[in-house]
Amino acid sequence: MKEELFEIVDHPIQLENLIKKVESRNAGAITTFIGTVREWTKGKRTVYLEYQAYKPMAVKMLATIGEEIQSKWPNTIVAITHRIGHLDISDVAVIIAVSSPHRKAAYEANEYAIERIKQIVPIWKKEHWEDGETWLGDQLENVPYHDGKPHIKDEKDD
Amino acid sequence: MINVLLFAHLQEEAGQDRLEIDEEGMRVDEFKQMLEDRYKFTQLDQVMVAINEEFAFNNDLINSGDTVALIPPVSGG
Fold it and tell me: Which superkingdom (chain B) (predicted)?
């Protein structure tokens, strides 16, 4: 059974599973990024978070990020799992694993993946603060939707 | 019939996660304007549209049978 490299799940994510998905005899490095739920943001206390996704499209966009990475950093393998639903402080929201023949590509590609997730993957975070709740949007403060469509891929960025 | 999927604040404003709209042949920007007029959604200017799970441009056409998702600014990660 082929394990899926890109997943949206509603249960806790196991780091070991993602590492296994990207293991390769050609790899000299595996980097992992673990995104966790932070309690304090600019003096405001988060009680818990709720993530929602447009699941089929989110999986597709994660796979698109994987394709972008493979064209920018050849011979890498990428696996990404994002969790949705109710998450408490310190829970793991996302894990990204990248393997590559040499370490530099694994570091760079991993950072690229999280930046792209924040731009193009249809997942939303609802913050439940001590004194209210709000859907967060546009965390990067760069609404990239001037023509109704986000920036998917531009060779100029390579 | 166009199947419209709602997420995040739009879902809460509508009180439901999907709408069925009996229109076709509208452009994406016309469709958004129609939804804004009819359902009084807020912040639609920041909302992207996906047609059948692909991000769409403002001048793309929406046809009967399409699934149209309204995508507010994303905040995953």
Answer: Bacteria
| Tokens 């950072």 found at | A111
pLDDT tens-place string over residues A55-101: 999 999 999 999 999 999 999 999 999 999 999 999 999 999 999 99
Tell me the β-bridge partners of B5. B18, B69
- Using a CB–CB cutoff of 8 Å, tell me whether A132 touches chain B: no
Phi and psi torsions of A8, nearest 5°: -115, 125
- Across the interface, of A120, A139, A149, the residue whose CB is closest to B75 is A139
- CATH homologous superfamily of B2-71: Beta-grasp domain (3.10.20.30)
Counting Cα atoms < 13 Å in the Cβ hemisphere of B69 gives 22
User: Architecture of A6-130 per CATH?
Assistant: Alpha-Beta Complex (3.90)
- Domain boundaries, given as residue ranges, for chain B: 2-71
The first and second tokens of residue A97, run together, are 């694993």
Give A2-54 pLDDT, tens digit per residue. 579 999 999 999 999 999 999 999 999 999 999 999 999 888 999 999 999 99
Residue of A6, A147, A149, A153 best to disrupt the B interface, most CBs of B under 10 A: A149
B9-14 contacts, C-beta under 8 A, 24 or more apart: B9/A135, B9/B42, B9/B43, B9/B72, B10/B41, B10/B47, B10/B70, B10/B72, B11/A52, B12/A135, B13/B39, B13/B40, B13/B41, B13/B42, B14/B39, B14/B41
